[in-house]
Amino acid sequence: MPPFFRAPRPVRALELSLLVIPLLMTLACQGSGPEDALEQQSPRLVLEPGQLVVSLTFDDARASQVNAASLLEARGLRGTFFVSSGRLGIPGYLTLDQIRRFQAAGHEVGGHTVSHVQLPTLDVDSQRRQVCDDRVALMNAGLRVTSKAAHARGSMQPTRAGRTPAHPHERLHAR
């Protein structure tokens, strides 16, 4: 049986995605004028003809993401790993040293709240602490933290105060 079929299901899915994504992007991005769909969807992103940017993101800092990082690196690709600082080192999750190795290999690290809570269920002060304290903890650990963030459980809906709190340097990662 080929090695692809012997790999654990998440690894197979990632490997398949890495094979299919270039094909899909080639098909989706055919065209070379200003009416190109990619340019219309990303007006702030200026690409030269033939250039393409694809973001591969991983949330929750699960220990199995070591496999994802290795698969990406073997193909010359890098990803963004969104980390809940309060979970680092807990069994089943990545350690700070593993996250540092990811970053040293060229992967990006972003915040994912301290304890992976749904922000809309919290009062505004607690929401701000979850977001900002997570970023500060990651930075204090010596990590370069991207200005993008993926709030836990996709909780990008407005909070009780009508907006999602964000660190001043943070952009929400659309999912």
From TrEMBL:
Positions of the UniProt region annotated as Disordered: 148-175
SUPFAM superfamilies given in the database record: Glycoside hydrolase/deacetylase
GO biological processes: carbohydrate metabolic process
Keywords: Signal
Source organism of the structure: Corallococcus carmarthensis
Origin: domain of life: Bacteria
Full protein name: NodB homology domain-containing protein
Domain NodB homology intervals: 52-175
Keyword Mitochondrion applies: no
GO MF annotation list: hydrolase activity, acting on carbon-nitrogen (but not peptide) bonds
Pfam families: Polysacc_deac_1
PROSITE patterns named among the record's database cross-references: NODB, PROKAR_LIPOPROTEIN
